[in-house]
Amino acid sequence: MTAREVDVVAAGHICVDIIPAFGEVSGTDVGEILRPGKLLEVGPASISTGGSVSNTGLALRRLGLSVSLIGKCGDDSFGDLLVEMLRREAAGSEAGMSVVPGERTSYTIVIVLPGIDRMFLHCPGSNDTFGPEDVDLGIVGRARLFHFGYPPVMKRMYACGGQELATLLRGAREAGAVTSLDMALPDPDSAAGRADWRTILEAALPHVDIFLPSLEELLFMLRRERFEELAAGAPGIADAFTADDVRELAAECIGMGAEMVVIKCGHAGAYLRTVQSVERAAGVLHNPGEWEEVEIFEPTCRVENIVSAAGSGDSSIAGFLAAMLRGEGPARCMAALTVVGAQNLSALDTVSGVRSWEETLSQLQAGPRKNPIPRHLEDLGTQRPGRV
């Protein structure tokens, strides 16, 4: 494993998250709960940093790794608040943030209703003007891993067929860092939702060593008809996708250039598939040979009291990357992914539920209780497939 000054540079989308606390609400129909003209009493709001830079970057820091953050905000009140919150949580890690006069800081209102999936009211703000010039390659060159998150909510990253995203990732790799990429599900009615994501991924993935999207994101980007079919039916994508959906999408992403693909499959678990010969990511692996031609499906941990799932995917990624950077093998990294993702569910915000690496390691060694693998996914269990 390469010895460098910084473990991870977390770059990309960052915002201020405002999460009102909802108590008991009558009914489960969103249209009734959020009916125009209705006064709905809520509790205190949790105000925190959000987006991939914060969610994954600060979770990695809580797991004991050295992390530098690279993002962009305006010089408005939200920008002042954002930088101050980063400074309080991780003093010094905010040095890579660009504060741009006259621009507006991104914010998200996260609506977490009991028994109903999260909803987001999002203003992209200065994330839309983020480009390769906002990444200090001097900082990246001192890091083992460059993790970039949420290009679907960053206009320049998906415009022009993803060429600026490809330029950024290529520059990070040329600086000597292993690269990883996380996505976000775009609004179908937005410019991002209408973008040609196959073309964008074809441009970006040759420069990505570790690709960590969700199943929904990949279906939306590469199998739109299948996405719409599953989304329109009951019980929905989270419970209706098949093992073939997962395998085919992973194989396609590897065919586009990624060495490792981790697909987050919601409450069912997560799936890992790797190439026959892992070379580019070897710089952060203790034993690259054990990562070759791996296929693992890891079910989620059982959690009795879920406070919020906001940021759980980002925390899961942090668990996987932290374990990898500490020299763990693929099975242990996938187990860490589910453990840290479960930790996240205990808090309303996106970061504070994540424990230290020592506590996480203790949970791993104790063997956390697992949800059963859904019957229709059972053949995604640990295997070594043939060459992709």
SSE inventory with pairings:
Elements: E1 6-12, E2 15-20, H1 30-33, E3 45-50, H2 52-62, E4 67-70, E5 72-74, H3 77-89, E6 98-100, E7 107-111, E8 119-123, H4 137-140, E9 143-149, H5 155-158, H6 163-174, E10 178-182, H7 197-204, E11 210-211, H8 215-222, H9 224-232, H10 237-240, H11 243-256, E12 260-264, E13 269-274, E14 295-299, H12 312-325, H13 330-344, H14 357-366
Parallel strand pairs: 1-4, 1-9, 2-7, 5-6, 9-10, 10-11, 11-12
Antiparallel strand pairs: 2-3, 7-8, 12-13, 13-14
Helix pairs in contact: 2-12, 8-9, 12-13, 13-14
Biggest sheet architecture: 8 strands, mixed
Sheet/helix structural class: alpha/beta
Q: In terms of per-residue confidence, which ranges show pLDDT below 50 for 5 or more consecutive residues?
A: 384-388
Question: So, the CATH homologous superfamily of one domain?
Answer: Ribokinase
Topology-level CATH name of one domain: UDP-N-acetylmuramoyl-L-alanine:D-glutamate ligase
DSSP strand content: 15-25%
Can you name the CATH architecture of one domain?
3-Layer(aba) Sandwich
User: Shape, please?
Assistant: globular
- How many individual helices? 14
**Radius of gyration over alpha carbons?**
20 Å
What percent of the residues sit in helical stretches (DSSP H or I)? 25-40%
N- to C-terminal separation? 26 Å
Q: List the helices and strands in order.
A: EEHEHEEHEEEHEHHEHEHHHHEEEHHH
CATH class of one domain: Alpha Beta
Provide the residue-averaged pLDDT.
Answer: 89
